[in-house]
Design goal:
This protein is an alpha+beta fold and 314 residues long. The chain is built from 6 helices and 13 strands.
Length: 314
């Protein structure tokens, strides 16, 4: 009688997989300090890129050194609007038309590129990219100020300074020739000075918050050939501690003159302050009380350039 054999089946008929002897190759050790636990299903922190066990999987549990970076990156990606790639089809939103008046070609697309002309500052298709093809010599560059207008503005400014300088010389010559036209001496008594100051206060306008002892009373005019104002002149008072630039803003507002000094334009559009008694243009940073006194006359000019002494010297 044959006995049954207990030998294991051959490898050809084995129906299961033999587990690797090295169990550590299956999972990973927790990288939290003093833990080092072997976890077969470890967790990876997306902020610090380290591996942890179930107990230390959160950023708070393993005291993540870069906590919150993964969440911030997700919020940033969610708030960013996705950009769609152009399919090359010309539309009014994705393309522009050639600047040549007789060309209807859409440029700046995948099928038709645009070429910028450095002379006239316009974009053309490949057919009209050359200067001869779009008559570049007869075009005024985009964004350029006509030279004739700039020259006219400069000539007006120079003429205005010449008239003001001549006016000041005539007043000085007339005062020296005839003692009758000289201004009367200032009152010597305190009471007389107070009466004269009260007479000026009746017509001068200004900010009522300015202390009386810090006020400087001036006669302000707008030069007609370079500026346009609704009020040609007026009497105003300003704070002697103000800068000339601030006084200019208030004077332009009082005479209703357009003031674009704070817009960063060129000198041809900026207003300047001309001191008649001093015969010079005032710097914006000067103090009002340093160069001006009560009773002086200042004129608002446009397009005369910076306060360079060579520009206004006789």
């Amino acid at each position: 009688m044959a006995s049954s054999s207990s030998t294991p089946p051959s490898s050809d008929t084995q129906t299961f997989t033999t587990m690797d002897k090295d169990l550590e190759a299956i999972g990973a050790h927790c990288q939290y300090t003093y833990c080092n636990q072997l976890d077969f299903l470890p967790f990876r922190c997306e902020s610090c890129k380290h591996t942890f066990c179930l107990d230390h999987r959160t950023e708070t549990a393993h005291k993540c050194t870069r906590a919150g970076e993964w969440a911030a990156a997700r919020r940033k990606a969610a708030s960013t609007t996705p950009t769609t790639s152009s399919n090359g089809k010309p539309t009014l939103a994705t393309a522009a038309q050639c600047s040549h008046p007789q060309c209807k070609t859409y440029i700046n697309t995948l099928s038709a590129v645009g070429v910028l002309c450095q002379t006239c500052n316009r974009q053309y298709c490949l057919k009209h990219r050359l200067k001869e093809d779009h008559s570049c010599a007869t075009l005024i560059p985009l964004g350029a100020r006509p030279a004739s207008l700039a020259n006219t503005q400069a000539q007006k400014a120079q003429a205005a300074i010449s008239r003001l300088r001549l006016w000041g010389k005539e007043k000085a010559a007339a005062a020296a020739a005839s003692p009758l036209v000289r201004p009367p001496p200032k009152p010597s008594s305190a009471a007389a000075r107070a009466v004269a100051l009260n007479n000026i206060r009746k017509t001068a306008k200004g900010d009522a918050k300015i202390p009386v002892d810090k006020r400087v009373y001036l006669h302000v005019e707008a030069e007609a050939s370079t500026t346009t104002s609704k009020l040609p002149s007026g009497d105003f008072f300003y704070n002697k501690e103000w800068s000339v630039g601030r006084m200019l803003d208030e004077a332009a507002k009082g005479l209703q003159v357009q003031n674009v000094n704070n817009r960063g334009g060129g000198e041809e559009e900026k207003l300047r302050v001309y001191h008649v008694e001093g015969g010079r243009l005032l710097e914006f940073g000067e103090k009002v009380g340093a160069g001006l006194g009560s009773g002086n006359t200042v004129v608002l000019l446009r397009g005369v350039g910076p306060a360079i002494p060579d520009l206004i010297s006789a």
